[in-house]
Amino acid sequence: MRERHAIAPGGGGPGAAMALGDAPPLLRLDGLSKRFGSLQALGEVSLELHPGEIHCLLGENGAGKSTLCNLVFGVHSPDAGSMTLAGAAYRPRSPADALARGIAMVHQHFSLVPDMTVLDNLLLGQVRGVLDRKAGAARIEAMRERYGLALDPHAKVQDLSVGERQRVEIVKCLVREPRLLVLDEPTAVLLPEEIGALLAVCERVARQGCGVVLVTHKLAEIRQVAHRATVLRAGRVAARSEAPAREIDALVRAMIQRDLQAPPAAPAPAPALARAPRAARVPGQPVREAALHADGLTVRDADGVLRLDNFTVLVEPGEIVAVAGVEGNGQSELGAVLSGMLRPGEGRYFICGREMTRASPRELTAAGCGVVPEDRHALACVTGMSVAENILLDRLRRYRRHGLLDRAGLRAAAAELMQRFDVRAASADVAFGGLSGGNQQKAVLARELTLDPLRFLLAAQPTRGLDVGAVQAVYGHIRAAADRGVGVLLISSELDELLSVADRVLVLYRGHVMGSCPTAGAERARIGAWMAGHREEEVAA
Amino acid sequence: MSVPADIRPRLRPGPALLVSVAAVLLAFAVGAVLIALLGVPVGDAVAAFAEGAWGSPYALAASVNRALVLMLVGLGFILAERASLTNVGGEGQIAVGGIAATALALWPPVAALPAGLAFIVPMLGACLAGALWGGIAGVLKVKAGTNEVIATLLLSFIAIWMVYGCVQSEHLLRRPMTSSATLPESLEIPAATQLPLLTGDASTPLHVGLLLGVVLAFAVALVLNRTVLGVQLRATGLNPRAARRAGMAIDRLTVGALCAAGAFGGLAGAFMLQGEQYTLKAGFSSGYGFDGLVVGLLARGSATGVVAGSLLFGFLRSGGINMEMVAQVPTALVVVIQGLIIVTLAGAALGIQRMESRRT
């Protein structure tokens, strides 16, 4: 397929003046494609990167940014296309290959041993034979002088903040003197003040002649450091910019372009998913009647980092409220709090007027709170047990005769639910783990939507990993529940889906509600900007 | 017992039995070779083994009683195992059970209780003591995340030495010292507190504990396979967070499972004391807890497997003791044969599982 044209051909960004001569680019990607099963993760992506350049890679979740990095770093091999490193063919078979050719990568998730010191983590895998700690410490000191990366070599990693841990990862890369440094969403985990320091390091590294690929979806960062930028959307290059600082708005549009064309052309949500918006809440109506009333929920993680910040929401009976946002911006914590698996540091929440802040999962279920958790395998099912046992896991006691488990009754009840919710399995007795993801999710829905009473449903990423048919079915059931008067809080990173299903959407960014609006006539650009941590005034500018 | 076959990789009974028997025979054959190498006539050794294991009504009853103790520990083991808990503390649970049973039986008011209560109360006390011993490991796991393997094992050592302490001090359970030759052991428990013999004839010392043991074996099979509790234990073991989300009290299930396993061990201790030994001595538990653990491991979660395994090991122990006394085969060799059986059985189970999974 053809690539989109650059937004602004030529031009000179802040750093574009350097290294754009006749020298071969440091890294050149030509028509790179990668497919995972039925998902085309990357399609014919081409890109050039020069020494001393900070190249920002933008895109929504699932746009293919991480896949691209993994191809460059040798984690995966491309299905088609070629890569050239400093003029020579480059086909890494493993990260070790990539490292040997001078490419280093900082992953989203750190690979550090918490119990060991910074120095020992640094030496891990980089030395053979005798450990020379003195030389290692000297190298850390050299890094401090060269890049301003201060680290205490003898501190244990477990005592470091997230930002410091990331610094260890970066130093681990830099001591190899790489030609190219790939940073996959390095700022997603950082506090604002730490982000500034990281960006400064990136600039220093680039100034030493190293190429830097910075994956991000935060516009402020691009404005600050990017020499050039490439926007990926659905695995393809949606835009390129030679002067990203001046073209932020165009980049935002390219990133969420699909969202700007309302109604979206493809993939079209089924007509069945469209629904009339609910009547807005009459002001002054008592909160007591809300299916969910969350008031100032705040969560900090073990490192003291604020994960959910003063989250407040009111979900009326029959209303579907969606929580949008890039994953990792507090959705998991919100889901854990509302399912009784995590106590909020501050704030309270009520189901139908009853305070549930410190309730156990069992009490929540009794109060009519159904939960479709984000992590199905960890929380919603026991894969080693049968479908029947899983569908009725929370109400096994109902199937007893003379004190014994009434397996026939259990099987029959499960079979009935399986039919109602179209859970396809050979029988109610097969292992739950053998079902497809879609059928597993439908089974979980069958359990949670048949709670009696059911007043509120928390559905977190309910369609993750499901195919189109299953997605339709899942939303069909959620919508039917709302039509029966159940209040629904839908946490999802699929903007298209939640806009077509929900009545109202609010956007989480860094645990903070950036804004909220009805989905009817919602401006996708505005929501997209909220998701990227962009305040309204900045978008308008 | 209708646990769906597709859920757990269960061994099909036919081939499993065949392979198990073959494994045991193989271990015996290797044992025979070892005996021959030691210069003991194999015929003599086998005769001594048979005589000790089932050669007389007394031998038969003694073997069954040994099997009964191993079975109780094994049943407790598979009960906790269903919640993915490994109780290796059978030895200590037997020991505290023995101490509790002795203390209660030697307490005059208990011996004076009417209508069988005289022997029932010490048994119940032993169950409680065992449950407490298992429960400590459970609470440690739930509250502090301590691995139950380590906790139950270490608690065993404490309990074993507690028996030593109890029989060394007159203030505790040691019989009154009348001379310097008085052994460090308790008084014999009163007749009313001893388990009644089934035949009324001391030459066949089968006691009422056998009946209770059979009932308990059925009960455990029923609980594991046919009750809500069994499913909840399994869910808790396989995915505690999902079980909690589904409203199960996983902490209580965890502590409860280890308490139950401990209670079985305590009862085994009561059977040993009130059914056979009648006096508490140092080293009274003599490895039954660890053998019972092996029985539980080899049973792969099945109560039937526990019964079969405990009979095998019970007879093996009786025969082995006689083989040592009569044919002068060292005990070490009996232990070697026992080890061989464990290895061949475990290996056979693995082999069958591989075969089955390849077929499907």
- Mean pLDDT score of chain A, rounded? 81
Number of helices of chain B: 14
**Share in β-strands of chain B:** under 5%
Q: What structural category characterises the helix and strand content of chain B?
A: mainly alpha
Mean of pLDDT of chain B? 89
CATH architecture of chain B: Orthogonal Bundle
Biggest interface found: A-B, 34 and 25 residues
At the fold tier of CATH, the topology name of chain B is ABC transporter involved in vitamin B12 uptake, BtuC
Describe, in plain words, how this protein is organized in 3D.
The complex is a heterodimer of chains A (541) and B (360). With 541 residues, chain A is an alpha/beta fold. Chain A folds into three domains: 1-102 and 178-255, 3-Layer(aba) Sandwich (Rossmann fold), CATH 3.40.50; 111-176, no CATH class; 271-383 and 451-540, Rossmann fold, CATH 3.40.50.300. Chain A contains 19 helices and 22 strands. Chain A has a six-stranded mixed sheet, sandwiched between helices. In chain A, strands 16-19-20-13-21-22 form a six-stranded mixed sheet, with helices on both faces. A four-stranded antiparallel sheet of chain A has the order 2-1-4-5, with helices on one face. In chain A, a hairpin with a 2-residue loop joins strand 4 (80-85) and strand 5 (88-90). In chain A, helix 15 (437-449) packs parallel to helix 16 (468-483). The radius of gyration of chain A is 25 Å and the shape is globular. Mean pLDDT of chain A is 81; it is low at 1-20 and 258-286. By secondary structure, chain B is an all-alpha fold. Chain B has a single domain (68-323), classed as ABC transporter involved in vitamin B12 uptake, BtuC, CATH 1.10.3470. Chain B contains 14 helices and no strands. The A-B interface holds A 339-341, 360-362, 365-366, 371, 373, 378-386, 389, 393-394, 396-397, 399-400, 403-405, 407, 429-431, 434 and B 2, 4, 6-8, 222, 226-228, 230-232, 234-235, 238-239, 241-249.
